[in-house]
Amino acid sequence: MRKVKGNTLCVIQTKTSETNAIGETVNTWTDTVLVQGVLGLQSGDSKRPVYNAKIEESTHVFVCDYIDTIYDLADQDVRCIIKGKMYDVMLIDNPDELNYHLEIYLKLVGGQNG
Asked: What is the separation, in whole angstroms, between the first and last Cα of the chain?
């Protein structure tokens, strides 16, 4: 049963690292979970005057229903893709350990080439 009525889809990806034949680390991102929820801005800024180019820095929170699979990813290297934008996952929180909903704290990543 859905408790959080959201209109935003989030693809949660996990990273695996391997070493290729010449010793370089090659990272691969794999889609792990697709979840529906709500995305909210926490803080943000555009630093055009500082860098003479528009550089957006923002943090967000994605709220979704509690799902064991997602909460189990809390100690792994994960990222989210939401509406074509890439976000680093800073924290996956189960408030008060109630197993009701999850709050996934995100930071917008620049250079959306993966």
From this structure: 33
Q: How far apart are CA 91 and CA 19, in angstroms?
A: 27
> In a 3-state reduction of DSSP, which class is residue 88?
strand
Q: Are 106 and 45 in contact (CB under 8 A)?
A: no
Q: For 85-110, how does the pLDDT look when each residue is reduced to its tens digit (9 = 90+)?
A: 999 999 999 999 999 999 999 999 86
Instruction: Quote the CA–CA distance of 96 and 92 in Å, as a whole number.
Output: 13
Cβ-contact 114, 86 below 8 angstroms:
yes
Q: Give just the sign of the alpha carbon dihedral 66, 75, 13, 32.
A: negative
What would the pLDDT profile of 10-41 be if each residue is shown by its tens digit? Answer: 999 999 999 999 999 999 999 999 999 999 88
For 36, the token pair is 């529906």
Q: What is the model's pTM?
A: 0.82
Cβ–Cβ contacts within 10 Å for residue 58, how many? Answer: 15
